[in-house]
Amino acid sequence: MNRIRILIASRPILALKVPEVLVWIVLVVATAFSWLLGHEAGREVVAIVIMAVAYVKVRLVGLYFMELRGVVGLRRSLDAYILISLVLIIGFYLAA
Amino acid sequence: MPVEGGAVRNGWSQRLCVWSGALFALLFFIGFGVIARYIPPPDPQRSAADVAAFYRDNANSIRTGMLVSMYALVLYVPFVAAISVQLKRIEGTHTPLTYTQLGIGCTLPVAFFPPLYFFQVAAYRPERSDDSIMMLNDMGWLPFTGIIYAIFIQNLAIGFAVLADRRANPIYPRWYGYFCFWTALLYCPAGFDVFVKDGPLAWDGLFSWWLSLVSFFAWLVVTIMVTLHAIAAHVAAPDDCADTPVAVRETAGLFIT
Amino acid sequence: MTSTKDNAACGPQTDRRERSLPAEAGLWLFIFGDLVVFTLLFLVYLAYRTDEPELFASSQQTLSINVGAVNTLVLLCSSLFVVGAVRATRAGNRQLAPCLVLAAMACGFVFVSVKVFEYHDKLETDHTPASNYFYFFYFFMTGLHLVHVVIGLGVLTFLWRLTRRADELTSLGMSSVEGSASFWHLVDLLWIVIFPLLYLVQ
């Protein structure tokens, strides 16, 4: 714990060794990716990829930021929620 | 109220008041839903002629249904009182949240009488012009779905009180506090029914009517269960140090308990 | 529940730190309940979209993808600050932790300001919730989320007060820290889905 404190407080570069920081970088890259894809108008595949990326981001936030990684019950609930939501959203989207 | 080490002698009346909440729901459903057939609510976009025809064809069932519903509404008050008794145990001597809950809870019948009376007025002289009947119908339905303001704060007050409980065996389980916050949030969209005539926020919409109705019903059932449980625990162990808040205040803050 | 056996335990609070669950079980009920309601809202939005896809697509063109993306990044930054604050609190650092919470709150205020400008811009150009169903859902969804942001700012204020005593928090205080942090992550998480659904998916 003390080591982490020193890492974050005094040597910001080493914060990269903290998993949450790496996850955050992945989240930012994913946002940029979706942002680029968003300019591609009106393609169904694009829309599905964008929503899938969004729910991957949700999972990362849940597991790493909300710290559900180690809690089996909540992790499964989160996965079930993500899977069901994604399937329903894509299904409703394609129904158009 | 038992003071030091006193036994709970009025367990029966406390339970009676809790069940009054269940009776409220049942009678209201019979009056409003079964007799008057107001569940599901009519479409806000119906023409004035259709609305008037509904009152002309069903005048007596509407009169009877509203009458039963209003009796039902009053039964909500003993239920609120029973919750307050438990909240008072949590809060101890100075009980702002208990009074808030009691006061707001008692406004529920007061808030719902006017809409129901507007329906009564519409059914009283159904020979009135179509427009007048439609206006009375709107005057009833808009507040009926939209009035969530008081119950919103009531749920927050209960939630805060429950989460502030500092004993080792809390009077209400802590998840119930969060549950109250959640239901409070679910009522919020209903107030927007004044802006739209169709869609999910209209007075018969998914997010105004159905979500509020389902969450209110769920809240009622859960509250009855946890309150009965709290009374049973109190009766079984009247000497429980529960009535004197025990734990040392460990840190500042509401949720630190 | 309170049997004679339990009476013996009526002293100070028992230590609940043992479980691996971050925050309290009840809070997860709230968070998952909220998530389910939002999914329901997303599905209703998509269902209304099937009736008039062209109108939805053309209305969507008036939203600024860049503004939405910036707000996503702002919330992601605030989440990282909150993660840092929780770590610093666990390390008992009462200097660093409150600073990180304040940084997260600053991000929250930026989000709210951007949103207010966005609303103002939409209303200026006569796009109101009454214009059509796309705008109705745009205001409803982002408005409901904004309510969460505002509540979240209140929760962060509470978190800030806790982190100032980071080195003397009990296990239950820590649990409140984790709970407050999780609520703020929920705010981030909801926007992660709302942004692509409203702004990007056509």
Strand content of chain C: under 5%
Cα-based radius of gyration of chain C, to the nearest Å = 20 Å
Overall pLDDT metric of chain C = 87
Largest sheet of chain C: none
Structural class of chain C: mainly alpha
The end-to-end distance of chain A, rounded to whole angstroms, is 52 Å
- Global Rg of chain A: 17 Å
Largest sheet of chain A: none
Number of strands of chain C: 0
Which CATH class of one domain in chain C? Mainly Alpha
Count of strand segments of chain A = 0
List key phrases describing it.
heterotrimer, A: 96 residues, mainly alpha, B: 257 residues, 67% helix, elongated, disordered N terminus
Structure description:
- The complex is a heterotrimer of chains A (96), B (257) and C (202).
- Chain A has 4 helices and no strands.
- With 96 residues, chain A is an all-alpha fold.
- The longest helix of chain A has 23 residues, at 72-94.
- The radius of gyration of chain A is 17 Å and the shape is flat.
- The model of chain A has no long low-confidence stretch (mean pLDDT 85).
- In chain B, 67% of the residues lie in helices and 0% in strands.
- Chain B has helices at 11-35, 48-57, 59-74, 76-91, 96-124, 130-146, 149-163, 174-187, 206-236.
- In chain B, helix 8 (174-187) packs antiparallel against helix 9.
- Chain C has a domain at 65-200: Cytochrome c oxidase, subunit III, four-helix bundle (Four Helix Bundle (Hemerythrin (Met), subunit A)).
- Chain C is 77% helix and 0% strand.
